[in-house]
Structures are given as structure tokens and as C-alpha cells.
Design brief:
7-stranded antiparallel sheet; 11 strands; alpha+beta; two-stranded antiparallel ribbon
Amino acid sequence: MKVTQRYKIKIFQNIFFVLFCFITFASLTVGCDSSSEVEELPNKASENINYAPQPGEDWEVSSPEEEGVDPLLVEDLYLKASELEKLYSLLVVKNGNIIAEDYFNGGSIQRKSLIQSVSKSYISALVGIALEEDCLTSLDQKLVDFFPELVGQISDPHKKEITIREMLQMRSGYPDEETHQSFLDALYWGEYPELIIDFPLVSEPGEKFNYSNLTYSWLAIILSRTCEENLRDYAKDRLFEPIDTEVGDWLQDRDGYYIGSGGIHVTARDAAKFGLLYLNDGMYEGHQILPSNWVRESLINYSRKTRGNIASFRNLGYGYGWWTAKIGRHECTFAWGHGGQLIVLLDELNMMVVSTADPFFGQHDGNSWKHEKAVFNLVGDFIKSLPGD
């Protein structure tokens, strides 16, 4: 019995070994065949990505290959963009040509989006024009000079020293409205001159950076008062029409002034024209729209301690209505609006990336920031992947 039992066990062991070898070989063979088939199969996700720019009279179009950009990097950018829930548009411009363009989640080439605080960059440009035309005489003019009706009611003497320069740089001393709900409520209520009195200073003028939306709305009021013209009409004649831009809505405050902190609606292509103006030292199609020295001064970093890093955007600084950052090996300047509105300038590459997205108007919470940060991740990762010139 013991011999027979050992014999049976031996037979089962041999059968098991043969089966094991057969299954292992079959698995390896199928695995090799499958990987071979996978390599031959087209990437269905990539097949559905079409970032070719739409032809039109307002922009010259090209392709990544023609402008020396790796098309695989661009393809990856748009593949990831298609996964974002709140992104409306994404444009890449190189050497003055749109080389990639697509629209998402209801966005379109005609859609005029609320660009939120990108509006501040437009206000900064209008300040530069007003200086050139002598509507403003100096950046050292005082805030209170344009609100004489309030001077007798201002008790804090430091407020009487705030200059236009400090307002442009976000160094006026007024607080970031997002630090207190009552400040946000007042911002959205829309009666702005009185807030010069009501809002406290949190630092002395010029001392440090504080992101104050109100200061740019006051700058918009200053432009209207000193240039003695409706700001929309002033901007249309001197900025919008010269760069072939058609503005949609522009929000107004309760006194009828156009809001400078974030009320302009434009298409992504028109936002890109504004960015191109800064890449070209204020020139547009051979015409000097902005003084070249103003463009250069606007893009200088005057505040090295502003906010923390955002995704790949590191060492954030601030100029005159424009942010500065380093992304990987690349230095950039950018206009930034809540929700993911971006005009990112890469001067060394003669390149620009523009995005528009859900503006989350009146919504400042974790959900809005999550989607806004997703746009920063998208754009930052793409720029980081670009080789340096």
C-alpha cells in the first residue's frame, strides 16, 4: 500500500508540473501577443484630440511643428485639458501665431467670458495710456487727490499718502478682501468710494504686498474722473479697438463706474491679443498702442513676498497688474483671474498660453479653488515640460 500510494503521488506531481508549464507558457505567449496588438492599436484618446486652430481673419494660425514646438507635448496638454470639468478654452501662441486651440464645457471661439481679475491688467494698461496722454501727471499722485469729497472724513493720515504707484503694485496698505467676510460683502455690494474711509489699513503704504481688489476699482474711478470720460468709451478708443477687441459686458458699480477689479468679458482670442501686446513691447500690427517703457515697468516684480506657490508656479511676485513666477526653468509673467483665467507670457520663448474657465462669480471656497488649481496644474505642467531656448 505504501508503494502504491507513493506511486500515485508521483503521478499527480508529474501531471501538476506539466499543467503548470503549459499554463505559464500560454500566459507568456498571450501576453506577448497582447502587447504586440496594443502597440499596433491606435491611441483612441489621442485620435479624439483636435487642437488645430480655427482659421479666421483675426489671427494668423500655424502648427507646433512649424513653430518648433514638440507636438507630443501639445497633444498631452490638450488630452489633459479635455478632462477638466470647468475649463472653457485653451490657446497656445508661438511667434505671434496660434498653434493650438480648443474649447470645452460650453466654451467656444465666440464666447465672451468673465475674465475676473485679468481685468486688473487691462486697468494697468489704461493707466499707462492715461500717463502718456497727461490725464495723469505722475504715478506719485495721491489717491485722495481724486476723491476730494472724502478728504475731510479720513482720520488715518497714512491713507492720504497712498500713491497710484502703490495701488498698481498692491502695496497701498488696504487689506485682501478674502481675509474677512465683511470685506468681501462690501466688495460685492459695490459702493466703492466710501470704502476708502471705511476699510482699515493693515500696513503702511508701500510697506508690503496685500492683494486689494478695491484699489483697482478705485483706479478705474480715478481714470474716469481725471480723463473726464466714461471708462468703457475711453478704453474702446485707445485700447480695445486698436487691438481688434470687442468687449462684451463690463460690470458696473452702484455709482455707474466700470469695475476695475474684475468685470470685463472677452473671448479667449481677444485676451490673447492683449497678451501679445505685452510680448511685443506695446506694439500691435505695427502700431504702438502702449508705451514700451510702460510695458517693461508693468512686468517688473516689485513684491517678492506675495502668496505661496501654486502648482508649478513658484516664487510669485507682482508688477503693475501682472504677476511674475518661475515655472521649471522658465521665467514668466501672467494675468490671473479667479476660476482659472490666465494669460501667461513666456518672453524668452516668444510664447503665450491663454485659458478661460468658469469664473465662479461670488464663490470663494474650496470647490472653486480646486478647479482653479487644476487649470494652474495643467498650464504649469505644460510650460515646465518645454525646453529652454
